[in-house]
Amino acid sequence: MKWKAGDKEKLKKIIKQVSGNIDDIEGDLLQSARIQGNGDMWCYAPLTNQMTRVHRGTRVYIISEKEDHDGRVLVYTTTVEVVLIKKAELIEVGFN
Question: Which residue range(s) make up the domain with 16?
Answer without folding.
Answer: 5-94
